[in-house]
Amino acid sequence: MDYPGNLFVVAAPSGAGKSSLVKALMELDSAIQPAVSHTTRPPRGQEKHGREYFFLSPEEFDGMVKRDAFLEWAYVHGHRYGTSRHTIEERVAHGADVILEIDFQGAINIKQIFSNAVLIFILPPSWEELRSRLQRRGEDSAEVIELRLQNAAIEMAQAQKFDFVIINELFERAVFDLKT
Predict the structure, then answer these.
(1) CA end-to-end distance (rounded Å), the chain
(2) The CA-based dihedral angle spanning residues 10, 31, 97, 151, taken in that order and rounded to the nearest 10 degrees
(3) Domain span including residue 95
(4) In a domain, 1, yes or no
(5) Residue 36: left if φ>0, alpha if ψ -120 to 50, beta else—which one?
(6) Tell me: the pLDDT tens digits for 83-115?
(7) Is there a domain that residue 2 lies in?
(8) What per-residue string of b and e applies to 64-83 under the rule 16 or more CB within 10 Å gives b?
């Protein structure tokens, strides 16, 4: 589909800094609109319904799947995440630039629907730094961190399928790279 607006799709392994980079970008460029995904996972920390995610029950999520309300959806780390078809199509059809944070599988699926979507993959500077970031977050058990690292290896192997790859070593530089 070809639209006057742009769809920027950002994916990264857990702990690479995707959400922090996107938040910093939107603070610099108010013209970019966030696309808020839906999820069945519970909120973390200060997350608010409708800001970081739309937090849904499994039954609500199932209903949206049955109504074909998602452009894409996937299981990630034991929870489901989905991107609203209507929201994305309406915004880019009206000329808005939209940024979407999703997993690598969702990004590849989005590219099949929106061929002009720009796929951006965020990498950590090293495997050791990724592990350290996940541990410093203090949100996950050692077992969950290991699962996230196993998934990260799979995700990072897909980086070549993206239009751009940014290494998030120096945060300000990575924000600049994302903006350009």
Answers:
(1) 24
(2) 10
(3) 7-179
(4) no
(5) beta
(6) 999 999 999 999 999 999 998 988 999 999 889
(7) no
(8) beeeebbbbbbebeeebbbb
The answer to whether 40 and 56 have CB atoms below 8 angstroms apart is yes
For the chain, the domain total comes to: 1
Residue the block writes with tokens 């590219």 = 111
Q: How far apart are CA 144 and CA 35, in angstroms?
A: 27
Express each pLDDT in 35-61 by its tens digit: 999 999 999 889 999 988 999 999 999
**In CATH, what number is assigned to the domain containing residue 149?**
3.40.50.300
Q: What whole-number distance in Å separates Cα of residue 167 and Cα of residue 158?
A: 14
Asked if residues 99 and 34 have their Cβ atoms less than 8 Å apart, the reply is yes
- Predicted TM-score (pTM) above 0.70: yes
